[in-house]
UniProtKB/TrEMBL annotation:
Summary of the function given for this chain in its UniProt record: Transcriptional repressor for the pyruvate dehydrogenase complex genes aceEF and lpd.
One Pfam assignment: FCD
Molecular functions (GO terms): DNA binding; DNA-binding transcription factor activity
InterPro entries per the UniProt record, alphabetical: GntR_C (IPR011711), TF_FadR/GntR_C (IPR008920), Tscrpt_reg_HTH_GntR (IPR000524), WH-like_DNA-bd_sf (IPR036388), WH_DNA-bd_sf (IPR036390)
Lineage: Bacteria, Pseudomonadati, Pseudomonadota, Gammaproteobacteria, Pseudomonadales
Protein's UniProt name: Pyruvate dehydrogenase complex repressor
Amino acid sequence: MEVGQIRQHRLSDDIVEQLETMILEGTLQPGQRLPAERALAERFGVSRPSVREAVQKLAARGLLISRQGGGNYVSDSLGSSFSDPLMGLLESRPEAQRDLLEFRHTLEADCAYYAARRATDLDRQQLQHAFDELQACYACEPRASRADEAAADARFHLAIAQASHNLVLLHTMRGLFDLLKRSMVTNIGGMYALRSETRHTLIAQHQALFDAIMDGRAEDARRVAGEHIRFVQDVLDEREEEIRRMARAQRRERP
Protein backbone atom coordinates (compact mmCIF):
# COMPACT_ATOMS: atom_id res chain seq x y z
CA MET A 1 0.00 0.00 0.00
CA GLU A 2 1.34 3.38 -1.03
CA VAL A 3 1.30 5.98 1.71
CA GLY A 4 1.41 9.67 0.86
CA GLN A 5 3.12 12.34 2.85
CA ILE A 6 1.10 14.11 5.54
CA ARG A 7 1.10 17.82 4.93
CA GLN A 8 2.18 19.72 8.02
CA HIS A 9 -0.34 22.28 9.13
CA ARG A 10 1.20 25.67 9.73
CA LEU A 11 0.13 27.89 12.61
CA SER A 12 -0.07 30.83 10.25
CA ASP A 13 -2.86 29.05 8.34
CA ASP A 14 -5.01 29.12 11.50
CA ILE A 15 -4.38 32.86 11.83
CA VAL A 16 -5.25 33.35 8.16
CA GLU A 17 -8.53 31.53 8.71
CA GLN A 18 -9.42 33.68 11.72
CA LEU A 19 -8.59 36.91 9.91
CA GLU A 20 -10.61 35.78 6.88
CA THR A 21 -13.58 35.14 9.15
CA MET A 22 -13.24 38.61 10.68
CA ILE A 23 -13.22 40.16 7.19
CA LEU A 24 -16.20 38.10 6.03
CA GLU A 25 -18.25 38.89 9.13
CA GLY A 26 -17.45 42.59 8.89
CA THR A 27 -15.44 42.75 12.12
CA LEU A 28 -12.60 44.00 9.92
CA GLN A 29 -13.97 46.40 7.31
CA PRO A 30 -12.56 47.61 3.98
CA GLY A 31 -9.90 50.25 4.58
CA GLN A 32 -9.62 49.46 8.29
CA ARG A 33 -6.18 49.18 9.84
CA LEU A 34 -5.38 45.89 11.54
CA PRO A 35 -4.22 45.91 15.16
CA ALA A 36 -0.47 45.99 15.58
CA GLU A 37 1.44 42.77 15.06
CA ARG A 38 2.13 42.43 18.79
CA ALA A 39 -1.55 42.93 19.65
CA LEU A 40 -2.63 40.29 17.15
CA ALA A 41 -0.03 37.85 18.49
CA GLU A 42 -1.37 38.35 22.02
CA ARG A 43 -4.96 38.05 20.85
CA PHE A 44 -4.38 34.76 19.03
CA GLY A 45 -1.85 33.43 21.53
CA VAL A 46 0.85 32.94 18.90
CA SER A 47 4.27 34.32 18.01
CA ARG A 48 4.77 37.51 16.02
CA PRO A 49 6.54 35.67 13.15
CA SER A 50 3.40 33.53 12.71
CA VAL A 51 1.24 36.65 12.54
CA ARG A 52 3.66 38.21 10.06
CA GLU A 53 3.51 35.13 7.85
CA ALA A 54 -0.32 35.12 7.94
CA VAL A 55 -0.47 38.79 6.97
CA GLN A 56 1.91 38.17 4.08
CA LYS A 57 -0.33 35.37 2.80
CA LEU A 58 -3.43 37.55 2.92
CA ALA A 59 -1.58 40.43 1.28
CA ALA A 60 -0.48 38.13 -1.55
CA ARG A 61 -4.15 37.29 -2.15
CA GLY A 62 -5.18 40.96 -2.23
CA LEU A 63 -7.17 40.88 1.00
CA LEU A 64 -4.70 43.02 2.94
CA ILE A 65 -2.44 45.90 1.96
CA SER A 66 0.84 46.47 3.80
CA ARG A 67 2.07 50.06 3.90
CA GLN A 68 5.69 50.77 4.64
CA GLY A 69 5.84 52.14 8.16
CA GLY A 70 2.06 52.51 8.21
CA GLY A 71 0.75 49.10 9.21
CA ASN A 72 -1.58 46.63 7.49
CA TYR A 73 -5.02 47.45 6.14
CA VAL A 74 -8.00 45.56 4.77
CA SER A 75 -8.07 46.22 1.04
CA ASP A 76 -10.32 49.12 0.02
CA SER A 77 -11.29 47.23 -3.12
CA LEU A 78 -13.36 44.87 -0.98
CA GLY A 79 -15.71 47.72 -0.12
CA SER A 80 -17.05 48.56 -3.55
CA SER A 81 -18.16 46.52 -6.53
CA PHE A 82 -18.45 49.60 -8.71
CA SER A 83 -15.68 51.81 -10.04
CA ASP A 84 -16.04 55.59 -10.02
CA PRO A 85 -16.53 55.77 -13.83
CA LEU A 86 -19.29 53.18 -13.64
CA MET A 87 -20.98 55.00 -10.75
CA GLY A 88 -20.94 58.21 -12.79
CA LEU A 89 -22.56 56.39 -15.68
CA LEU A 90 -25.24 54.87 -13.48
CA GLU A 91 -26.00 58.23 -11.86
CA SER A 92 -26.59 59.87 -15.23
CA ARG A 93 -29.24 57.39 -16.35
CA PRO A 94 -32.78 57.56 -14.86
CA GLU A 95 -33.41 53.96 -15.91
CA ALA A 96 -30.36 52.85 -13.93
CA GLN A 97 -31.72 54.60 -10.85
CA ARG A 98 -34.96 52.68 -11.31
CA ASP A 99 -33.04 49.42 -11.67
CA LEU A 100 -31.14 50.17 -8.45
CA LEU A 101 -34.40 50.71 -6.56
CA GLU A 102 -35.80 47.45 -7.91
CA PHE A 103 -32.69 45.66 -6.70
CA ARG A 104 -32.85 47.41 -3.33
CA HIS A 105 -36.46 46.26 -2.95
CA THR A 106 -35.39 42.62 -2.98
CA LEU A 107 -32.11 43.09 -1.13
CA GLU A 108 -33.29 45.28 1.72
CA ALA A 109 -36.53 43.40 2.30
CA ASP A 110 -34.51 40.22 2.86
CA CYS A 111 -31.97 42.04 5.02
CA ALA A 112 -34.76 43.39 7.22
CA TYR A 113 -36.44 39.98 7.49
CA TYR A 114 -33.30 38.16 8.60
CA ALA A 115 -32.19 41.02 10.86
CA ALA A 116 -35.50 40.78 12.74
CA ARG A 117 -34.99 37.02 13.15
CA ARG A 118 -31.27 36.92 13.94
CA ALA A 119 -30.13 40.21 15.49
CA THR A 120 -28.09 39.82 18.67
CA ASP A 121 -28.02 42.30 21.53
CA LEU A 122 -24.84 43.81 20.07
CA ASP A 123 -26.49 44.08 16.64
CA ARG A 124 -29.40 45.91 18.21
CA GLN A 125 -27.02 48.33 19.93
CA GLN A 126 -25.31 49.09 16.61
CA LEU A 127 -28.66 49.43 14.86
CA GLN A 128 -29.84 51.77 17.60
CA HIS A 129 -26.72 53.92 17.10
CA ALA A 130 -27.24 54.10 13.31
CA PHE A 131 -30.92 54.91 13.78
CA ASP A 132 -30.13 57.65 16.31
CA GLU A 133 -27.66 59.22 13.84
CA LEU A 134 -30.35 59.23 11.15
CA GLN A 135 -32.89 60.75 13.53
CA ALA A 136 -30.36 63.44 14.49
CA CYS A 137 -30.08 64.38 10.80
CA TYR A 138 -33.86 64.63 10.54
CA ALA A 139 -34.03 66.80 13.68
CA CYS A 140 -31.09 69.04 12.76
CA GLU A 141 -31.83 72.77 12.55
CA PRO A 142 -30.86 74.23 10.19
CA ARG A 143 -31.59 71.17 8.10
CA ALA A 144 -28.70 68.74 7.56
CA SER A 145 -27.18 68.67 4.10
CA ARG A 146 -28.51 66.15 1.62
CA ALA A 147 -25.10 64.45 1.62
CA ASP A 148 -25.11 64.04 5.43
CA GLU A 149 -28.68 62.78 5.45
CA ALA A 150 -27.99 60.34 2.61
CA ALA A 151 -24.88 58.99 4.37
CA ALA A 152 -26.81 58.46 7.61
CA ASP A 153 -29.62 56.77 5.68
CA ALA A 154 -27.16 54.42 3.93
CA ARG A 155 -25.41 53.58 7.24
CA PHE A 156 -28.77 52.68 8.78
CA HIS A 157 -29.55 50.24 5.97
CA LEU A 158 -26.01 48.82 6.19
CA ALA A 159 -26.49 48.21 9.93
CA ILE A 160 -29.61 46.21 9.05
CA ALA A 161 -27.57 44.11 6.61
CA GLN A 162 -24.97 43.47 9.31
CA ALA A 163 -27.70 42.31 11.69
CA SER A 164 -29.01 39.86 9.06
CA HIS A 165 -25.98 37.58 9.65
CA ASN A 166 -26.05 36.66 5.96
CA LEU A 167 -22.56 37.19 4.58
CA VAL A 168 -23.69 37.46 0.95
CA LEU A 169 -26.34 40.06 1.77
CA LEU A 170 -23.86 41.99 3.92
CA HIS A 171 -21.09 42.17 1.33
CA THR A 172 -23.52 42.93 -1.49
CA MET A 173 -24.75 45.85 0.59
CA ARG A 174 -21.18 46.92 1.34
CA GLY A 175 -20.33 46.77 -2.34
CA LEU A 176 -23.26 49.07 -3.12
CA PHE A 177 -22.62 51.46 -0.22
CA ASP A 178 -21.00 54.33 -2.17
CA LEU A 179 -23.52 53.96 -4.97
CA LEU A 180 -26.37 54.01 -2.44
CA LYS A 181 -25.08 57.19 -0.80
CA ARG A 182 -24.72 59.02 -4.09
CA SER A 183 -28.09 57.78 -5.33
CA MET A 184 -29.81 58.86 -2.13
CA VAL A 185 -28.43 62.40 -2.46
CA THR A 186 -30.13 62.67 -5.85
CA ASN A 187 -33.32 60.97 -4.67
CA ILE A 188 -33.71 63.11 -1.55
CA GLY A 189 -33.38 66.35 -3.51
CA GLY A 190 -35.96 65.33 -6.09
CA MET A 191 -38.39 63.93 -3.55
CA TYR A 192 -38.30 66.91 -1.21
CA ALA A 193 -38.77 69.32 -4.10
CA LEU A 194 -41.92 67.51 -5.23
CA ARG A 195 -43.71 66.76 -1.98
CA SER A 196 -43.34 68.75 1.21
CA GLU A 197 -44.62 65.81 3.28
CA THR A 198 -41.96 63.42 1.96
CA ARG A 199 -39.60 63.97 4.87
CA HIS A 200 -42.27 63.12 7.44
CA THR A 201 -43.19 59.97 5.50
CA LEU A 202 -39.57 58.81 5.36
CA ILE A 203 -39.15 59.44 9.09
CA ALA A 204 -42.25 57.35 9.82
CA GLN A 205 -41.13 54.54 7.50
CA HIS A 206 -37.66 54.32 9.03
CA GLN A 207 -39.22 54.31 12.52
CA ALA A 208 -41.59 51.48 11.56
CA LEU A 209 -38.73 49.49 10.03
CA PHE A 210 -36.53 50.00 13.08
CA ASP A 211 -39.32 49.00 15.46
CA ALA A 212 -40.17 45.84 13.51
CA ILE A 213 -36.55 44.66 13.54
CA MET A 214 -35.98 45.51 17.18
CA ASP A 215 -39.22 43.71 18.13
CA GLY A 216 -38.29 40.63 16.08
CA ARG A 217 -41.31 40.94 13.76
CA ALA A 218 -39.67 39.49 10.65
CA GLU A 219 -42.62 39.55 8.23
CA ASP A 220 -43.50 43.10 9.25
CA ALA A 221 -39.89 44.14 8.73
CA ARG A 222 -39.88 42.66 5.22
CA ARG A 223 -43.18 44.36 4.38
CA VAL A 224 -42.16 47.79 5.71
CA ALA A 225 -38.81 47.66 3.90
CA GLY A 226 -40.61 46.90 0.63
CA GLU A 227 -43.16 49.65 1.18
CA HIS A 228 -40.36 52.12 1.85
CA ILE A 229 -38.62 51.39 -1.46
CA ARG A 230 -41.93 51.43 -3.38
CA PHE A 231 -42.72 54.84 -1.90
CA VAL A 232 -39.37 56.23 -3.03
CA GLN A 233 -39.92 54.83 -6.53
CA ASP A 234 -43.46 56.25 -6.75
CA VAL A 235 -42.32 59.73 -5.75
CA LEU A 236 -39.39 59.66 -8.19
CA ASP A 237 -41.66 58.46 -11.01
CA GLU A 238 -43.97 61.36 -10.24
CA ARG A 239 -40.97 63.70 -10.27
CA GLU A 240 -39.87 62.44 -13.70
CA GLU A 241 -43.38 62.91 -15.07
CA GLU A 242 -43.45 66.47 -13.69
CA ILE A 243 -40.16 67.22 -15.43
CA ARG A 244 -41.53 65.86 -18.72
CA ARG A 245 -44.68 67.99 -18.42
CA MET A 246 -42.62 71.12 -17.79
CA ALA A 247 -40.43 70.36 -20.80
CA ARG A 248 -43.49 69.99 -23.04
CA ALA A 249 -44.95 73.23 -21.73
CA GLN A 250 -41.68 75.06 -22.41
CA ARG A 251 -41.54 73.72 -25.97
CA ARG A 252 -45.07 74.98 -26.65
CA GLU A 253 -44.07 78.48 -25.52
CA ARG A 254 -41.27 78.69 -28.05
CA PRO A 255 -42.10 80.52 -31.35
